[in-house]
């Protein structure tokens, strides 16, 4: 097992990988006590080449490998890439490209919703992966042989799975499906929370319009503090505290002390004073500049239409061997049930051909569903 701990070794390895059409990549990281993930290990594999790169090794410069990630001639293959891409986006300020996510590809090939790495490799390659090292402390050195063996298996099998999935997609003429999904992964906003947009992560059910400004500013302040101090956002201020403070709207330290979510004595600290000012700033936002909070029960989709569309989605996905979540989410189904012109992915492109148009025909009464030997079938009306 090759473990790279020097910049020279990494340069040679990265140069060899840049001569290949694709490279499988994975990471091991920790973030339980931090806001930003701590990168502990990078695994990479190309044809005849595989290694674990130690980013914690003294003096190592990751630049040669990061340059590989931005090389447009080499496809970077990940499985469930989102968290790995967040790490690399912070390191290089961009998303590695071009990308291929085997989890998304597997969904397009009919392997189910968000299939995990181990079951996918077991199905495709009959691989047996020992997951005993999965939740070990990757920041401790030296790493054990068991850890390294597990880590490298995450890319050596991935290297073999990629051409199989790619060939399947091409034979089924579904490669463009996956390419469309990959486009969404290039959006840098997926991997960085802009503090002024942090309120969008909150579940706003029950928030009243007059509280919205305070919620927005409190969420923004918390995100700034968490990023600056590199600590989880809920260690700065819990979601429940944001909602309570937005409801109470304390105007001074004494009022802040009455909040159940605030520790005793906190109101006398600089942070307590900062919170009071943040709330004041939120309350001063003009009403016309505040976002409108959607009311989930407004224009509720008819239950019978909703259930019919769910049955149809299941039928279409089983017939065409594709994972339902790749076609339409529950929110998409509800939107289609309410509105034939809903702005959802399921009503455009290949998804419309596979499901969306049929769903609209079902709503219009042009087709019906029937049971044929225990299976759902479609008939023209």
Automatic annotation (TrEMBL):
Which cofactor does the UniProt annotation name? a divalent metal cation
Which InterPro entries does the annotation name?
3'-5'_exonuclease_dom, HRDC-like_sf, HRDC_dom, HRDC_dom_sf, RNase_D, RNase_D-like, RNaseH-like_sf, RNaseH_sf
EC main class here is hydrolase
> Quick one: signal sequence residues?
none
Molecular-function annotations in GO: ribonuclease D activity
Q: Which residues form the HRDC domain?
A: 208-289
SUPFAM superfamilies attached to this UniProt entry:
HRDC-like, Ribonuclease H-like
The protein's Enzyme Commission number: 3.1.13.5
Q: Where is this protein localized, as stated in its record?
A: Cytoplasm
> Catalysed reaction per UniProt?
Exonucleolytic cleavage that removes extra residues from the 3'-terminus of tRNA to produce 5'-mononucleotides
Q: Which domain of life is it from?
A: Bacteria
HAMAP family referenced in this protein's UniProt entry, alphabetically: RNase_D
| Family named by the database record | Belongs to the RNase D family.
Name of the protein: Ribonuclease D
Q: Which organism is it from?
A: Hyphococcus lacteus
Chain's gene name: rnd
């Amino acid at each position: 097992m090759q473990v790279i701990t020097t910049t020279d070794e990494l340069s040679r390895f990265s140069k060899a990988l840049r001569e290949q059409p694709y490279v499988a990549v994975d990471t091991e990281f920790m973030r339980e006590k931090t806001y930003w993930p701590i990168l502990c290990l990078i695994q990479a594999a190309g044809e005849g080449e595989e290694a674990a790169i130690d980013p914690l090794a003294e003096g190592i410069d990751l630049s040669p490998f990061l340059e590989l990630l931005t090389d447009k001639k080499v496809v970077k293959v990940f499985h469930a890439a989102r968290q790995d891409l967040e790490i690399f986006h912070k390191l290089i300020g961009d998303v590695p490209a071009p990308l291929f996510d085997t989890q998304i590809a597997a969904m397009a090939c009919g392997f189910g919703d968000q299939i995990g790495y181990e079951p996918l490799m077991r199905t495709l390659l009959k691989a047996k992966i020992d997951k005993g090292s999965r939740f070990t402390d990757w920041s401790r050195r030296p790493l054990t042989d068991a850890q390294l063996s597990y880590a490298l298996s995450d890319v050596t099998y991935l290297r073999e799975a990629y051409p199989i999935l790619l060939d399947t997609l091409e034979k089924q003429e579904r490669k463009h499906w996956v390419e469309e999904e990959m486009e969404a992964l290039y959006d840098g906003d997926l991997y960085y929370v802009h503090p002024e947009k942090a309120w969008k992560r909150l579940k706003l059910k029950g928030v009243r319009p007059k509280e919205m400004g305070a919620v927005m500013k409190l969420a923004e302040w918390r995100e700034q503090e968490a990023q600056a101090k590199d600590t989880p956002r809920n260690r700065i201020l819990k979601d429940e505290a944001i909602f309570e403070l937005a409801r109470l709207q304390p105007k001074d330290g004494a009022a802040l002390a009455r909040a159940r979510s605030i520790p005793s004595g906190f109101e006398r600290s600089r942070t307590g004073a900062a919170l009071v000012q943040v709330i004041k700033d939120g309350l001063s936002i003009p009403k016309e500049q505040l976002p409108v909070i959607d009311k989930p029960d407004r224009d509720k989709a008819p239950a019978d239409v909703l259930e019919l569309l769910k049955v149809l989605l299941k039928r279409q996905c089983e017939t065409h061997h594709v994972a339902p979540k790749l076609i339409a989410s529950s929110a998409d189904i509800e939107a289609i049930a309410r509105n034939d012109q809903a702005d959802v992915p399921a009503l455009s492109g290949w998804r419309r051909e596979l499901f969306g148009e049929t769903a609209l025909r079902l709503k219009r009464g042009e087709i019906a569903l029937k049971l044929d030997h225990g299976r759902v079938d479609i008939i023209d009306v």
